[in-house]
């Protein structure tokens, strides 16, 4: 059941008469009134997804979306987000300012209505062109309900207005607190820590979303400032995002670590059957398909009609061109849809007035008419481009032929693997030490770096539910290898066979037969050093490109072995970070030398079986980190950059993000 659709219906019913006052057809009366905010506090997850990291950050998106709406309406070009020292958030824009006039029926100011009534704010007013809005699109009143304090400041009509709220309720009437010849809205809120299970904002999560928004909505200046983080000159950490060309630059950014096949980025911004459609695409020499689709600035990770229309239009147009060119005449096998998308990076962004979101995570577009709009947009774009750029056209068709040839070879390799292993029942890999429990929900598979650590893990494990598969050092870099090479790789075949999943065909590779999965926790365990991180990345790249559903389903985890063992007499303390090391040293007492013995674990192999169990494998004491994809476009870019040919961006990324110990004692 879709609560989003339900709410839209309610909004229509609750719509109030528009008196037509106000210069833009807006007046306080046109703001639609719904229900109170109690429901939001009772069931926050229904409104913002969850009460963890995601939900906490969602509050910011909800406020920023309102400012983006104002920008899309043409009244705002600057948005500033500040993370305050106490993890409160300030969002400022230079739009028209939320109206402050009296709302006749409600007997309160429009500002108060917007801030305290669910779905107010004219968001669903068909007269106004507002299509932005977070996944849940619940509006700023929802943020207010979930904040222990919120201060709204509006600059409008020469004055500055202010109202303060606590858990959604106004503390006083709106006040005029000064004069200003500027306009704009600023919202400062303090998330309610009795609702959220986390309180700390993560700079990178907000930065990634603001960057995405900047590319999706060109010509808007977005700034993120972190007042918790000051450099030696007293400057706060900050990032500024601005894209003058939008999606074209988005594709450039995503493909920075890849080698382009053609010089230009092919792009269009158009409107088909009243649906604004923007598309940018580029081919590169990699083998991955990277299509990111958005509806009203929401990343539709489950795809939908717009994506279907894109694929159909792209395949049809390229196929027709290739047929006419005669380049396919010598080909002995069919070309499939996938072949046209190998090495394709594309971003599709549509704005839909009344989107129908379906699917498990409500990120699949259902509106059937949008499919035709996107199909028309992409086929028109490509037809023109191919005609006008015959050299590029030839390069693209050659790439498609290469993909078809490789796919043909890959199918043979895959059939071979399948016959030998899963389907033929040839049994599990020899290196696998399986567990005895056969209920997948209870079972864990450890993918362990190297035979020696694998041996220790085998001794240390609980064989009832923990299985061990040692992997030989560096597994294949799948980012750079063609599919048939990947499927022919010994370590990768072992992973497939141990997991029990077969290798999907092109069309259903994303569907993977998860019901056959033999372990519901797949835990990557590598050394806490540079090599270990590298191996970790190689394995994660493999899962990301070939078994993304396992990441999306929450099956992939990372083990966290300790960095040090600090010993004093009979006291033994394991520590996981440099900071923790200092704390423990202080606790146990330092100085000439106090009998402290510090052992740095360079590799898993330096621990004995019991230590490995205690620190890293025992479910009661270990810390597992679940691998999730917060931002698909950014994840894709990082994998291609980490695993690609360009050295400089990779070094930069590693230096900025490495968390393993840098000091080697
Ligand atoms: C309702 C009507 C108008 C503007 C806004 C809401 C508005 C809301 C937010 C939230 C953050 N920034 C915002 N900026 C504007 C139109 C007001 C008019 O007619 O002048």
Task: Provide structural commentary.
The structure is a single chain. The protein has 665 residues and is of the alpha+beta class. The protein folds into four domains: 213 residues, Histidine kinase-like ATPase, C-terminal domain (Heat Shock Protein 90, 2-Layer Sandwich); 158 residues, Ribosomal Protein S5, domain 2; 171 residues, Rossmann fold (3-Layer(aba) Sandwich), CATH 3.40.50; 54 residues, Dna Ligase, domain 1 (2-Layer Sandwich), CATH 3.30.1490. 36% of the residues lie in helices and 21% in strands. It contains 20 helices and 26 strands. The strands form six sheets. Strands 1, 2, 5, 6, 7, 8, 9, 10 and 11 form a nine-stranded mixed β-sheet that branches. Strands 12-13-16-14-15 form a five-stranded mixed β-sheet, with helices on both faces. β5 and β6 form a beta hairpin. It is globular and about 75 Å long. The relative contact order is 0.08. The N terminus and C terminus are likely disordered. The site of 3-[3-(1H-pyrrolo[2,3-b]pyridin-5-yl)phenyl]propanoic acid (0RA) has 14 residues, from α4.
Could you give the topology of this structure?
Blueprint: H1 3-13, H2 38-42, H3 44-48, H4 53-72, E1 78-83, E2 89-93, E3 102-103, E4 108-109, H5 110-116, H6 140-145, E5 147-156, E6 159-166, E7 169-170, E8 175-179, E9 184-191, H7 203-216, E10 221-230, E11 236-241, H8 247-254, E12 266-272, E13 275-283, E14 290-295, E15 298-299, H9 305-325, E16 344-350, E17 357-358, E18 364-365, H10 368-388, H11 390-420, E19 444-449, H12 451-460, E20 466-471, H13 483-487, H14 490-499, E21 521-525, H15 530-546, H16 548-552, E22 556-559, E23 564-568, E24 571-575, H17 578-588, E25 597-600, H18 609-617, E26 624-626, H19 632-643, H20 647-657
Parallel strand pairs: 1-10, 14-16, 19-20, 19-21, 21-22
Antiparallel strand pairs: 1-2, 2-9, 3-4, 5-6, 5-9, 6-7, 6-8, 10-11, 12-13, 13-16, 14-15, 17-18, 22-26, 23-24, 23-25
Helix pairs in contact: 9-10, 10-11, 12-18, 15-19
The structure holds 3-[3-(1H-pyrrolo[2,3-b]pyridin-5-yl)phenyl]propanoic acid.
């Amino acid at each position: 059941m879709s609560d989003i659709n339900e709410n839209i219906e309610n909004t229509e019913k609750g719509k109030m008469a528009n008196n037509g006052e106000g210069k833009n057809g807006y007046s306080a009366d046109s703001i639609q009134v719904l229900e109170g905010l109690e429901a939001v506090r009772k069931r926050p997850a229904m409104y913002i997804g969850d009460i963890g990291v995601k939900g906490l950050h969602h509050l910011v998106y909800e406020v920023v979306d309102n400012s983006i709406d104002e920008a899309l309406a043409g009244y705002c070009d600057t948005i500033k987000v500040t993370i305050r020292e106490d993890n409160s958030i300030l969002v400022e824009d230079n739009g028209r300012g939320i109206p402050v006039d009296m709302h006749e029926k409600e007997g309160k100011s429009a500002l108060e209505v917007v801030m305290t009534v669910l779905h107010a704010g004219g968001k669903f007013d068909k007269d106004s062109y507002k299509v932005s809005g977070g996944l849940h699109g619940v509006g700023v009143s929802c943020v207010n309900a979930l904040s222990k304090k919120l201060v709204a400041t509006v600059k409008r009509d020469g004055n500055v207005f202010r109202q303060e709220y606590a858990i959604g309720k106004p503390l006083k009437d709106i006040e005029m607190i000064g004069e200003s010849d500027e306009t704009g809205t600023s919202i400062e809120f303090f998330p309610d820590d009795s609702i959220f299970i986390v309180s700390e904002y993560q700079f990178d999560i907000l930065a990634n979303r603001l960057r995405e928004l900047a590319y999706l909505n060109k010509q808007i200046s977005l700034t993120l400032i972190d007042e918790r983080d000051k450099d030696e000159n007293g400057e706060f950490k900050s990032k500024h995002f601005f894209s003058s060309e939008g999606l074209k630059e988005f594709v450039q950014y995503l493909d920075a670590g890849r080698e382009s096949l053609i010089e230009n980025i092919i792009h269009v911004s158009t409107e088909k059957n009243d649906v604004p459609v923007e598309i940018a695409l580029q081919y590169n020499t990699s083998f991955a398909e990277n299509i990111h689709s958005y509806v009203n600035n929401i990343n539709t990770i489950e795809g939908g009609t717009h994506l279907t229309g894109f694929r159909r239009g792209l395949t049809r147009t390229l196929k027709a061109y290739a047929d006419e060119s005669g380049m396919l005449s010598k080909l002995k096998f069919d070309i499939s849809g996938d072949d046209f998308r190998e090495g394709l990076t594309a971003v599709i962004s549509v704005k839909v007035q009344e989107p129908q979101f379906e699917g498990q995570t409500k990120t699949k577009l259902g509106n059937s008419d949008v499919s035709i709009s996107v199909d028309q947009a992409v086929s028109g774009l490509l037809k023109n481009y191919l005609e006008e750029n015959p050299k590029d056209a030839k390069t693209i068709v050659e790439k498609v032929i290469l993909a078809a040839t490789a796919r043909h070879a890959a199918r043979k390799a895959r059939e071979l693997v399948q016959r030998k292993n899963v389907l033929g029942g040839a049994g599990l890999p020899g290196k696998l030490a399986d567990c005895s429990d056969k209920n997948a929900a209870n079972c864990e598979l450890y993918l362990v770096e190297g035979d020696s650590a694998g041996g220790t893990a085998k001794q240390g494990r609980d064989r009832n539910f923990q299985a061990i598969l040692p992997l030989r050092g560096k597994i294949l870099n799948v980012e750079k290898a063609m599919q048939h090479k990947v499927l022919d790789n010994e370590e990768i075949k072992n992973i497939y066979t141990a997991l029990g999943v077969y290798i999907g065909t092109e069309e259903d590779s994303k569907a993977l037969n998860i019901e056959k999965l033999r372990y519901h926790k797949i835990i990557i365990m590598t050394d806490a050093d540079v090599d270990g991180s590298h191996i970790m990345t190689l394995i994660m790249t493999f899962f990301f490109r070939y078994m993304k559903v396992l990441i999306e389903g929450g099956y992939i985890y990372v083990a966290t072995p300790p960095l040090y063992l600090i010993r004093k007499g009979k006291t033994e303390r394991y520590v996981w970070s440099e900071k923790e090391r200092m704390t423990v040293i202080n606790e146990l007492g330092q100085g000439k030398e106090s009998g402290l013995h510090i052992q740095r674990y360079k590799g898993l192999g330096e621990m004995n079986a019991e230590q490995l169990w205690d620190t890293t494998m025992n479910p009661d004491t270990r810390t597992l980190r679940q691998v999730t994809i917060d931002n698909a476009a950014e994840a894709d870019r990082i994998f291609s950059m980490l695993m690609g040919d360009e050295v400089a961006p990779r070094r930069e990324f590693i230096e900025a993000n490495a968390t393993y110990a840098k000091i080697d004692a």
